[in-house]
Amino acid sequence: MKDLTEGSVIRHLLHMAAFMAVSMLVQTLYLLADLYWVGRLGREAIAAVGVAGNLMMVVLALTQMLGVGTTTLIAQAAGRKDQPHAERALNQSIVMSLLVGLAFVVVAFLVRDAYCNALSADVATAALAKIYLLWFIPGLALQFPLVALSSALRATGIIKPAVGLQVLSVVLNIVLAPLFIFGLGPAPRMGVSGAALATFISILIADVLMVIYFEKKYRYLRLRLNQWRPQIKIWWAMLKVGLPAGAEFALWGLYALIVYAIIRPFGAAAQAGFGVGGRVMQALFLPVMALSFAVGPVVGQNFGGRRADRVRQAVFAAIGLASAIMV
Description:
Elements: H1 9-39, H2 43-53, H3 55-79, H4 83-119, H5 123-141, H6 143-155, H7 160-182, H8 192-216, H9 232-263, H10 268-284, H11 286-304, H12 308-326
Helix pairs in contact: 1-7, 1-10, 1-11, 2-5, 2-10, 3-4, 3-6, 3-9, 3-11, 4-5, 4-6, 4-9, 5-8, 6-8, 7-8, 11-12
């Protein structure tokens, strides 16, 4: 656990933001590389991945809600030196992540066919999107516990292990995707579903390694099954903080769905172009997004430690840095 109530606030922000930026940059490179390999299969394949990928916005909204709530509660508890409450918040966050992830899988598979048929420009694109989602939906579900554990580490000022696993996951994805898409070596040729399978495998490995890290290396917060009984008070505290953040991402997802529906009559090429453009836009906002992830732990710990002066300093410093970056 790293005490963020002491030392330079700006240094803490820049340190955490730098590691988050690296993680998000690698993630964006993966998205672009994935589009490159899938693009070799044709514009219908790109459009299908774009249509299916819109579900990522749903997951981002839900994981943002979970991640912000987890970071806030654990950071505040760490700031006031209340380790038992921080640990309870971690374990309750894991329970929530598993339940929400399970609910997402069930609902996503129930609406998969109708969703793909409604948004795809043609029958071929819809068929490819349905195939892609067979592995992509379980892969997205694995993001929920990974976000819960990563948020807990970030809340306590520990950033390197989560970023390292994120980078490892992305590198694995980049390596595995062409193998499964084109059937290189012993891997079967799977087309677009191969890209989704590569995503599933890489996220699964990251989840397993993260659990191992908590069990073997991290001592401040431990995974304890006897704390997995639902505690509604903690859940509600997380939701009160996380819901507004999740709603913001949900609006972005709604926007993407509306645009895909509007451009549907223009064909798969238009949908493919919008999908590629969306990935490029993500890259442009990387630095500010990284900074936003760094602010939560710094403000949370100092708020919990009753350091109002440092809370104000962190907020104003973040605003200044974000403005300078975007200008």
